[in-house]
Amino acid sequence: MNMKAVNSMNYEEFIDLFGNAVEKCPLIAAAIWSKRPFTTVVDLETSIFEFIDSLPQTGKEGILRCHPDLAGRELQSGTLTADSQQEQGQAGLTSLSQEEQEKLQHQNSRYKLKFGFPFVICARLNNKSKILQELTARIQNQPQQELHNGIEEVKKICHLRLQNIHW
Amino acid sequence: MNMKAVNSMNYEEFIDLFGNAVEKCPLIAAAIWSKRPFTTVVDLETSIFEFIDSLPQTGKEGILRCHPDLAGRELQSGTLTADSQQEQGQAGLTSLSQEEQEKLQHQNSRYKLKFGFPFVICARLNNKSKILQELTARIQNQPQQELHNGIEEVKKICHLRLQNIHW
Q1: A18 and chain B: CB distance < 8 Å anywhere?
Q2: Domains located in chain A, CATH noted
Q3: Distance of alpha carbon B112 from alpha carbon B123, whole angstroms
Q4: A57 contacts on B by Cβ (under 8 Å)
Q5: pLDDT (tens digit per residue) in B39-78
Q6: Which InterPro entries match (chains A, B) (predicted)?
Q7: Who contacts B6 (Cβ-Cβ below 8 Å, separation ≥6)?
Q8: Integer Cα distance of A87 and A74 in angstroms
Q9: Phi, psi of A55 (to 5 degrees)
Q10: Is A33 on the interface with B (CB under 8 A)?
Q11: String of DSSP letters for chain A
Q12: What does the H/E/C string look like for A21-51?
């Protein structure tokens, strides 16, 4: 894959490839197809980030709400996206002890109740103990700070998903 | 289903129910959950429409690009969403003659090439001959007019999907 190939894609091919760069938000890839041609992957990534930043607060909250819980119902039922399955697996979240599992779910529930969106963290840049530590710390934050933190993590996840494509 | 039940839903339940009110854009339902409580279905619908209207032009184009072609590849391969399958079936698009099929695909391709998004029309309010007639007429429009027309059709589809829920 190179940028020349990307720039010559019709929007269907583009969405097939980048539609999950932001979890379950094909709308975002579909939107930034309008911004082609892209000079580099960074240029494409910047278009995604600018689109996210252009959304009203409800839209940013909506992006977070499209993310699965870590070690949550989608992982249990096997309905995670392929990207999330791989990321949660790498962080050790698919092999938790029962105690770790219960602790994570308990803290996740508290987090969602407080903020109205799930705890989002770039699993690939963390491991299960770091994730639980961050969750316990971030739950203390104010809502605006956590919205900001969550969106920053969405961007890190997006960056690594784009890097993960064989360029 | 009544508004009291809707207003007491957590965001996961809400997205499960309304996530496809706008085709393949769960982000929109996820965003407007922030606007609850809703007094009526119309109030909920208004929140969806206001969110759509708040998007930059690329976002509106993105919404259109998340829609399948009428009688297109997703219908052929059985990968339409349940909503779209039902809507295209009711309009007679699942039982086209080969000639009708070819004509529709040809005009659809021309439309997409001209505008960079698919022809979107509320299939439930039309039938196959009306749809082909509209496609042939609308392909003559200017891009800004067609973006506007497409988004108006998205809102009609959304309205009928909300009405289709057993309230």
Answers
A1: no
A2: 69-145 (1.10.3330.10)
A3: 18
A4: 34
A5: 999 999 999 999 999 999 999 999 999 999 998 989 989 9
A6: OHCU_decarboxylase, OHCU_decarboxylase-1, OHCU_decarboxylase_sf
A7: B14, B17, B36, B38, B44
A8: 13
A9: -75, 150
A10: yes
A11: --HHHHHT--HHHHHHHHTTSSTT-HHHHHHHGGGPPPSSHHHHHHHHHHHHHHS-HHHHHHHHHTSPPTTSHHHHHT-S-HHHHHHHHHTTTTS--HHHHHHHHHHHHHHHHHHSS-----GGG--HHHHHHHHHHHTTS-HHHHHHHHHHHHHHHHHHHHHHS--
A12: CCCCCHHHHHHHHHHCCCCCHHHHHHHHHHH
Task: Check residue A127 and give left, alpha or beta (phi > 0: left; psi -120 to 50: alpha).
Answer: beta
* Residue B159 among the catalytic residues: no
Give which of B35, B111, B27 is closest to B69, Cα–Cα.
B111
Cα(B80)–Cα(B69) distance, rounded to whole angstroms? 10
**Which token pair is B84?**
């779209």
Chain B positions in Cβ-Cβ contact with residue A27 (cut-off 8 Å)? 24-25, 27-28, 59, 62-63, 66
Query: Position B116: which residue type?
Result: G
Asked if residues A44 and A93 have their Cβ atoms less than 8 Å apart, the reply is: no
Q: Which position has the token pair 């086209």?
A: B96
Tell me the two tokens of residue B50: 């206001």
Whether B77 and chain A come into contact, CB under 8 Å, resolves to no
**Distance between B10 CA and the closest CA of chain A, angstroms:** 8
The amino acid at A39: T
pLDDT at A1 over 90: no
